[in-house]
Design a protein that fits this description.
mainly alpha
């Protein structure tokens, strides 16, 4: 077993660490695939009968996003918990929207932009992943995705973006999301695990703070 030198000491990477990264990446791939399929249906198919299909795609996307947030490695515990809380809020809001309007979920959200005040938390969590990946790995696609997501959602919420620009941003989002997911699948595993000595140190600090109280 290879030993790595971290900031606060040596550490090793075990099978559970690798399994967690694989699950994280697989979940991202599922989320990206569902989002890309849904976006393609919206952008290139004008048949309103496809709108109900977007609901199970969104559900699968959201569940996969939740799994990825469970297994992602983030040094800052508060940030990790915040992103998970965003996902929970977005999921509850999505369920509420889906069960209070007879129209397909996507149609309701599109026609009633204020629903993004709740549903948008799901995408805030996704943006957090993009930001983390851009910061840690300097990936071009995540650097672009980080501003695209809030720009599109806030633009639609405030109704200030022309339809063609919204469609263009959605297309860029879908393509870059898939590019990001594919690149994650072929990336070496250890970098995604990070410096485990930092996690150990931070856990120790939290225990000391708890004991002091």
């Amino acid at each position: 077993m290879e030993v790595y030198q971290g900031q606060f000491g040596e550490f090793t990477i075990n099978k559970d660490d690798r399994r967690g990264v694989i699950i994280y990446r697989a979940a991202l791939a599922v989320a990206a695939s569902c989002f890309a399929i849904g976006s393609t249906l919206v952008l290139f198919n004008h048949d309103p009968n496809i709108y109900p299909l977007l609901t199970p795609l969104y559900t699968c996307f959201s569940l996969a996003l939740g799994v990825s947030l469970l297994f992602i490695h983030i040094y800052m515990v508060a940030l990790h918990r915040t992103l998970q809380a965003f996902w929970i809020i977005g999921s509850i809001a999505s369920l509420a929207v889906a069960h209070t309007d007879p129209q397909p979920f996507a149609v309701t959200v599109y026609n009633h932009p204020l629903t993004l005040l709740g549903v948008g938390f799901t995408f805030a969590a996704l943006t957090g992943i993009f930001f983390k990946e851009a910061f840690c790995f300097n990936r071009l696609e995540t650097k672009v995705l980080t501003p695209i997501v809030p720009t599109l959602l806030l633009g639609h919420l405030l109704e200030i973006l022309p339809l063609q620009l919204e469609r263009a941003l959605l297309a860029f989002w879908a393509v870059l999301f898939v590019v990001f997911a594919i690149r994650k699948l072929i990336q070496a595993i250890p970098p995604d695990i990070g410096d485990k000595s930092v996690f150990t140190y931070l856990k120790g600090q939290l225990k000391e703070q708890a004991s002091a109280q």
